[in-house]
Amino acid sequence: MNEAKSRVRLCGVMTSRPARCFRCRRRDCRPSPCTGPRTENSIVTQDLCTHGSSSLSDEGDLQGYIVECSWHEGKFDIRSGQPCALPCTEALRTFPVTIANGEVFIEV
Ligand code: FES
Question: The domain spanning residue 20 has which CATH number?
Answer without folding.
Answer: 2.102.10.10
